Amino acid sequence: MIFNEIYSAYYNAVAKIITEIINEKTEEKDLNRIVCENAFGESSLTVLPSLKNEKWQLVRSDMTTPIVHKPTMPLTGTQKQWLKAISLDPRIQLFGAEINGLDDVEPLFTAADYVVYDRYSDGDPYEDEGYIARFRTILAALKEKQPLKIRAVNRKGRLISMTVMPVRLEYSEKDDKFRLLSTGCRYGRTVNLARMVSCEVGSASGFRPWPPAEPVKKSVTLRIRDERNTLERCMLHFAHFEKQAERIDKSHYTVRIQYSKDDETEMVIRILSFGPTVEVTEPDDFRNLITERLQRQKSCELS
C-alpha angle 267/172/109, rounded to 5°? Predict the structure, then answer.
């Protein structure tokens, strides 16, 4: 892992403790607070005792430290290369993120190094100034919990206006598009950002949004043959989904994944990307979707 808060949490906590000790702040309650804020709930049972009994040899038993300078954590060369690669993604500009000091760094990878299969080619115009401005307006409204006045082109090509309360932004890997989920208007539950003509923050005065509709949850059960590290790849690929895994035998596993019905087509594509080492065992309607997709691909009807 290049960046991971789980693996760096202890380093950050200990670095801040050493900084406090250098600043001559050694109250145990304050040091415990640092551990709780920067590591995990049970870390207070490990971090401070390991420092105080000199197991880690960073702090003396009298709560002084042989370290003279405050700890810093400069980026490694690989981390800089990863950041450089991320900075080249046009989607990073949507968030207004600026990554400086990487002019002489070679990217860890570029778009030419990989190919995404089974993705539509008409993704959102991430480099369009108007699109970027609307995206940032939506982000601001989400943070401030303010309604949005939106003008957008519907599927029939008609220009419609709506005032909605934004709920969240979603990204579809299959479509390569962002969409806004909202409430307060029967037209605007889900709006593709690329269809928006204008977007501005409105006034919350007198606006009464409807309660957001609960997404329809479904589940799919997979039988995994753990060849070519399929199990690990599958667990990482679906890391942000609710799921349960069970071992069948030495090389076979069952994984049950919960997903939103709105993302069903994307789930089909994701599962197919693992090839013959992953089989859908239930439900039957999802197996039928897999079969239909494979039949279309076999006849060259890929979309």
Answer: 100
Which residue, chain included where needed, has tokens 């039957």? 284
Q: In 3D, which of 186, 128, 132 has the Cα closest to residue 160?
A: 186
Cα maximum dimension of the chain: 75
* Spatial distance between the Cα atoms of 100 and 68, rounded to a whole number of angstroms: 29
Residue from 252, 248, 215 nearest 234 by CA: 252
What are the phi and psi torsion angles at 131 (to 5°)? Answer: -65, -45
Predicted TM-score of the model (pTM): 0.62
The DSSP-derived string for 99-114 is --S-TTPPPS--GGG-
Q: What is the DSSP string of 13-78?
A: HHHHHHHHHHTT---HHHHHHHHHHHS-GGGGGTHHHHHHTTSSSSS-TTS--S--SPP--PPPHH
Q: What is the pLDDT along the chain (303 residues), one digit of tens a residue?
A: 566 655 577 888 888 889 988 988 878 788 888 888 887 766 777 788 888 888 888 888 888 888 889 888 788 888 899 999 999 999 998 998 888 889 999 999 998 888 776 677 889 999 999 999 999 999 999 999 899 999 999 888 899 998 888 988 989 877 889 999 888 776 657 889 999 999 999 877 666 666 656 668 899 999 999 888 888 888 888 887 888 988 898 889 999 999 988 788 888 988 988 889 999 999 999 999 999 888 887 776 554
Position of tokens 């895994």?
245
Q: How far apart are CA 250 and CA 183, in angstroms?
A: 48
Q: Which of 138, 130, 124 is nearest to 171 (CA)?
A: 124
Give, for 214, the enclosing helix (H) or strand (E): none
